[in-house]
Amino acid sequence: MILNSVFIFLYYAQFHILRIIKNYICNMKILIFTSICLFSCSAVAQNIENIVVNDSRIDTLASTQIEINTLKKGIDGFRVQIHHNQSQNRAKSQKFRTKFSNDFPNLKTYFEFKSPYYKIQVGNFVNKLDAYKVQKEISRKYQGTYIVPAIIPFDEVSQ
Fold first, then answer.
1. Which of 20, 48, 90, 152 has the fewest other C-beta atoms within 10 Å?
2. What 3-state DSSP class applies to 153?
């Protein structure tokens, strides 16, 4: 009988402790939610002032970059290389270029010879993501294409 009374007491004590923990968690949720709301409101209500600092070093750096780009006759960019041929057969490479231009008339092609290779590259891309998108489209029809760094002339950079 005493043992039953002890078990009943422990059961109600455990139940009471769990109820206290549940209330504590609910109160903490309310406290956290209220804190977030108050902090958000105070962050939105702040006055924002823009302070512009004119540093002559920034102007110097910008003018230096303009000079470098002018000397290079363009800016650093990317092209998609679609063909390179080690043979001395220029006509074969020109034929490949003509075929590609017929398949993709909206892309400008560049034909260059860097000994011992004839290379055909397409496009003028300022960032690699744009070059990748075009390369992916080209690779559906032409295998072995890849992105190469290139100097893009100022007049050919699309805005």
1. 48
2. coil
Superfamily of domain 73-156: Sporulation related repeat (3.30.70.1070)
Which residue has 């950079």 as its token pair?
Answer: 157
Among residues 114, 132, 123, the alpha carbon closest in space to that of 152 is found at 123
Per-residue pLDDT tens digits for 44-57:
555 667 777 778 88
Q: Give CA–CA dist 12/64, Å, rounded.
A: 80
Handedness of CA 93, 94, 97, 103 (dihedral sign): negative
Taking the C-alpha atoms of residue 159 and residue 155, their distance in angstroms, rounded to an integer, is: 10
Residue 83 CB contacts under 8 Å (≥ 6 apart), including other chains: 93, 96, 97, 100, 118, 119, 120, 142
For the chain, the domains span: 1-37, 73-156
Tokens 């290779």 belong to residue: 117
Furthest-apart CA atoms within the chain: distance in Å: 108
Q: Which amino acid is at 58?
A: I
pLDDT tens, position by position, 129-143: 999 999 999 999 988
Tokens representing 20? 């206290």
Alpha helices in 73-127 (DSSP H): 90-103
In total, the chain counts a number of residues equal to 159
